Amino acid sequence: MLDPDQFIELKASGNLPSPEGSALKVLELCQRDNVTLPELIHAMQIDPAMVGRILKLANSASFGRPRPAAALTPDVLMSIGIQSVRQMILAFSLVSANRQGQCPGFDYEVFWSRSAATGVATQLLGAATRVAPPAELFTVGLLANVGRLALAALYPLRYGELLAEAGSQRAASLTGLEAHAFGHTHLEVASAMMIDWGLPRLFTDAVLYHEKPDLAAFDEDSRRGRLVNCLHLGSAMADLCFQPLAERAAEFAKLRPLADKLGIADGDLARLGDQMLREWAEWSALLEIEVREVAPFSTLEVFSESATAPPAEMPKTLTVLVVDDDPTVCLLLQKLLSAAGHTVHVAHDGRDGLAQALHHQPQLLITDLLMPHHDGLQLIKGLRQTELGRSIYIIVISSIDDDQRITEAFDSGADDHLVKPVDAKALQARLKAGTRVIREQQLLRQEQEELRRRLLELSVANQHAQEASLTDVLTGLYNRRHAMKRLAQEWAEAERGHRPLCALMLDIDYFKAVNDSCGHDVGDTVLRQVADILRAFSRAPDVPCRFGGEEFLLLAPDTALKGALQLAERIRSAVEKTALVATGIPLHLTVSIGVAEKISSCATVDQLVKAADEALYRAKQNGRNRVEAAP
After folding, report:
1. Residue 466 is assigned to a structural domain of this protein
2. Can you spell out the DSSP letters for 468-483?
3. Omega prior to 421 cis, within 30 of 0
4. For residue range 613-625, what is the model confidence (pLDDT) as tens digits?
5. Is residue 7 exposed (0-12), middle (13-18) or buried (19+ Cβ within 10 Å)?
6. How many domains, the chain?
7. What average pLDDT does this structure show over 391-403?
8. Does a structural domain hold residue 74?
9. Is 41 within a domain?
10. Which residue of 194, 249, 379, 546 pairs with 472 in a disulfide if CB–CB is 3.0 to 4.6 A?
11. Do 612 and 498 reside in the same domain of the chain?
């Protein structure tokens, strides 16, 4: 744990993320013993966004309300719990107030998007295991990594360097780098902040140990142990959403042992994952966070199993269910089938037969037609209505030559027919025919699974190709082709809604000199680091792109010229103050930025880009390291 004196020093800096505005007022009210629910509701209604988020939480599946809540009422608050409401408002306030910052390489939008995914996953996993109230689980998941946000605010430049040093191994190596650089880790800071905000020690301990649960001395079956594992798995599921699609199937397989610890079966994990993706998208829209499209977990499960499992062997012996109210017939069939090496189960009426069929999942069913209570026809119809029952090979037996009833059996879904008393040779012939059909069905299922796997692989390849066609390989930003496509879309939206739109054209000053004196490797590193700064200062609706060479374009929808100039100045200042490090060489570079607004004189997309480019040219002419607006 973080030393209390250390935390007091960090808090005294004034840079730690903290709630503000109307949220702070509500949090203060929640701490009063005599606060009334109407008082709380009145304070919340000052912020409509806050009300919408609380109602979203109350209407989530975890609370199981009989009908959706349409307004904030005392009943709604009571169903969530005052402490849960307090924690949720705290989390929402932190999201709203910390959407950008000065730390290069820290992607604030991705941070909150991943945090929202962790919150949703932890809430769903916790609801499945009943480890804690759903609202509190969402808050803990959302804030589990708030320590990273805090370190980015406390030590922006140094923390940016640590993020770059950790690289793709960020989760594994970042805590060690933090401890060496600052004397404390993001987990320790997050836990201390949550204690300071009044969250229970149960949750702060879970945050402290969730990245490495093995370090916690908690019994896995205890509430603390299950909560740590729940948050650990929720965080891993969120990480999975930000990995390349081609790697996600193998990574999903690694989650199964974690789910086993919580008593969650493989199929349930995939189902919870798909539900997480749906609710993640809804919460992201509510919190105004960008969310990426992610392939469902259920397709990953099929992909991973079909890609790694060996081809299924054809059945040499069958699992057979015999259903007949005559014990003599059952005994005879059981002996004949067992002698042939088949596994046999017996039921004496259609109702018991249906239950045993669903339990034992036989490949072949032999059933009498005439039985008391629940006859063979009812059994066949009931099975054929289930997914399992549609694949069972069904033979009906009858002691009478009743063509109409046999025809009815075939119409209900029977595959073959035997006459009582059953002849051993006739039974053997029917079994051979049934085994052949069962084998063909199994081969067909294998081919379908293989086709599904190949289609998924093709989808992955197509997605990668599409991403590659729209993304600049060096910086990871969108390329010029996508920039012009998005600009046309944003232009159309601005036209329809009579909303402002601005374009920022940015160019690195004296970049050719960097390439000439230091080499293109250094130049490439500089381009990537400038792209990181541009990405860090872009807001959720903004579209940063590499336009070509050392030029970048930033689209700023719903932004008038004054706001765009302020945004451009923040970017220019950040680049000027940041020491770009390439192969150990610190470089102090600057950028020039031209800003143009969609106005009547800019009648087309091309004219808007040209106006921004001309403003950039003037910035270069007027001394560089400056922002100029198009006239």
Report:
1. no
2. HHHB-TTT-SB-HHHH
3. yes
4. 999 999 999 999 9
5. buried
6. 4
7. 82
8. yes
9. yes
10. 546
11. yes
Which of 260, 278, 306 corresponds to the end of one domain? 306
Q: Known catalytic residues?
A: 550
Q: What is the CATH number of the domain that holds 253?
A: 1.10.3210.10
Q: Which residues contact 497 (CB under 8 A, 6 or more apart)?
A: none
Question: Distance of CA 327 to CAs 268, 334, 376, Å?
Answer: 40, 10, 16
Q: Could you tell me which of 146, 144, 184, 178 has the C-alpha nearest to residue 162? A: 178
Residues 6+ apart with CB under 8 A from 186: 145, 147, 148, 150, 151, 174, 175, 178
Q: Quick one: pLDDT at residue 301?
A: 52
Same domain, 255 and 113: yes
Question: What are the φ/ψ torsions at residue 346 (nearest 5 degrees)?
Answer: -125, 140
User: Which of 70, 97, 124 finishes a domain?
Assistant: 97
Taking Cα atoms as reference points, which of 212, 434, 222 lies closest to residue 315?
434
Residue 127 shares a structural domain with residue 246: yes
Assign 367 to helix, strand or coil: strand
Q: What is the pLDDT of residues 170-213, one digit of tens each?
A: 555 688 888 888 888 999 999 988 888 777 888 888 899 888 88
Instruction: Check if the beta carbon of residue 170 is closer than 8 Å to that of residue 110.
Output: no
The side-by-side arrangement of strands in the sheet containing 627-629 is 543-548, 551-557, 501-508, 591-597, 627-629
Count of other CB atoms within 10 angstroms of residue 332 = 18
140 phi and psi angles, rounded to 5 deg: -60, -45
The one-letter code for the residue type at 607 is: Q
Per-residue model confidence (pLDDT) at position 118: 93
